[in-house]
Amino acid sequence: MRINWIVMAMAMAVLTAAGVSCRSSNPDEITAADKLTQEEIGLMIAHVRLFVQDEAKKFKLKPEDIVTIRSEQPKVRVFYAGHKCGRLSLGWELKDRRFFAILEGDFMECKAWRIMINKNDNVVYYNRNSKRPDGVSIKDEFEELRNK
């Protein structure tokens, strides 16, 4: 029983530290410098397109779904909790379902995306940890593109 309390206390400390590092003291204090630039949002979209292409079979995507994701702009929603962190959602309307890639936390450091595919408002696929096979973070990829 004591071990459970210790584990819970450690988990709460980690969650609190993660939340503090990403949160602004007041949501009204989010400035333009805290927000993603259009270039950074474009990189996020390119990042998702890369791993979707690599993992299309895993997500049970049809060839026409992949074409849609690669060629059409997604619906972008961003909720900021601090400097370049919070919740980012990219959504594509496919022929018979919707595809969402969701990133939570530090946008430039986080490597894991949640993937949801909805059909008729039912979740048909949900993955809590999709990332590029090589484990490259957004920040690393962004630097690579800038240096080219």
Molecular structure report:
The protein is an alpha+beta fold and 148 residues long. A hairpin with a 2-residue loop joins strand 1 and strand 2. The protein has a five-stranded antiparallel beta sheet with strand order 1-2-3-4-5. Mean pLDDT is 76; it is low at 1-20. The chain is built from four helices and five strands; from the N terminus they run αααβββββα. It has one domain (2-147). 39% of the residues lie in helices and 28% in strands. The N and C termini lie far apart (55 Å).
Helix tally?
A: 4
For the terminal residues, how far apart are their CA atoms? 55 Å
Strand content: 25-35%
The rough form would be described as globular
Task: Give the SSE string.
Answer: HHHEEEEEH
Strand order of the largest sheet: 1-2-3-4-5
Number of domains: 1
What number is the mean pLDDT?
A: 76
Query: Which percent range fits the helix content?
Result: 25-40%
The biggest beta sheet is recorded as:
5 strands, antiparallel
Q: What's the number of extended β-strand segments? A: 5
Structural class: alpha+beta
Radius of gyration of CA atoms, rounded to a whole number: 17 Å
As residue ranges, the low-confidence spans are 1-20
